[in-house]
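2.7 Reproducibility. Because tokenized structures are sensitive to small changes in the input, we list the exact sequence used for DUF1541 domain-containing protein, including any N-terminal residues retained from the expression construct. No trimming or masking was applied before prediction.
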Amino acid sequence: MKMSRSLVKVSTAAGLLLLFSTPAFASSKKASHMSMHHEKTMRMSHKKSSKKSMSSMGNMNMNMGSKSSLKSSLKGLKVAKHPKFKKGERVISLANHMMGMKGAKATIVNAYNTKLYEVDYKPTTGGKVVKNHKWLVKSELKSNHNALKVGTKVTLNTDHMKGMKGAKAKIVAIHKGPAYMINYKPTTGGKVVKNHMWLVQSEIKK
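Resulting structure tokens (single pass, no recycling of outputs):
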């Protein structure tokens, strides 16, 4: 009986050794490892691609808005005489209005004496209400009221972002000027965003 059990153990061990040493098993194991590696690589690639796509869309929207609404936005605005940050000065953006904006290197395009308005608005393109959009100036708002204050309902007259122009909005906060316009290089990469409107003084550092 003891000899019989020993023979069974030896036979089983030999069979397992033969199985694991066969080309088919080695090939299967290698294929499984390669498949897992490929799947992991694809997940990482998709994640990076999605992030880059979001950043590119944000930059594109801001550039589109600044080009088409610049003239109307500046209507009636007076250049600030003694702003803390001067035209052409290189600064760092502390604002987080768009992806890649916080910590970005920027240049002051100009500063204007005007109040700035923070609004909630319903995009004309549909979707949820956009909360706390920063910032707009008076020329970018249409209202039946002469005095704009917190709670005043307005219609947006700018296209900083897709779906803004003609959108119904409500003022939720008012900030004293000056209002700064900047060019900045996104920290996420991509082209320089030109004529970004607007930043308040506390959103900029030297």
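The first helix runs from residue 2 to 20.
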